[in-house]
Amino acid sequence: QDSRTTAEFDISSFIDPDGKNLLSVEVYQHSDGSYLEDQDMWRLHGIFRDVYLWAAPVVMLRDIEIRSDLDRTDYENGVHSIKVWIRNTRTEEASFVLRSELLDDEENLVATTDI
Predict the structure, then answer these.
(1) Could you tell me if 3 and 31 are in contact, meaning their C-beta atoms sit under 8 angstroms apart?
(2) Do the beta carbons of residue 111 and residue 102 sit within 8 Å?
(3) According to the model, what pLDDT value does residue 108 have?
(4) Widest CA span of the chain, in angstroms?
(5) Tens of pLDDT, residues 76-91
(6) Neighbouring residues of 22: CB distance < 8 A, sequence distance ≥ 6
(7) What is the pLDDT of residue 33?
(8) pLDDT tens string 94-107
(9) By C-alpha distance, which of 108, 83, 113 is closest to 97?
(10) What HEC string does the chain produce?
């Protein structure tokens, strides 16, 4: 346990989208890790980060990784790879198109691809 560790909770099953919902936060002053983590700092209690509630679309882009490198033969041509992680909370498959565009320094289209 650590009082400075971030936490994220999925409360979707508890939300009434058509009704009024109340979000409450309970803060504990001490945990079984309090003694160890307070050896070199002030003993301050409470919430030290923003608490917020956000709603994500049913199908969403969860993360993206773009890598740019040079080809391994003559090191003259750029090689780009894109990995995407999609989250779909539907029970059925979702259909969508994700388009990648490469622009030059003057924002002219150099290349495009559908992922």
Answers:
(1) yes
(2) yes
(3) 96
(4) 63
(5) 888 888 999 998 888 8
(6) none
(7) 65
(8) 888 889 999 999 99
(9) 113
(10) CCCCCCCCCCCHHHCCCCCCCCCCCCCCCCCCCHHHHCCCCCCCCCCCCCCCCCCCCCEEEEEEEEEEEECCCCCCCEEEEEEEEEEECCCCCCCCCCEEEEECCCCCEEEEEEC
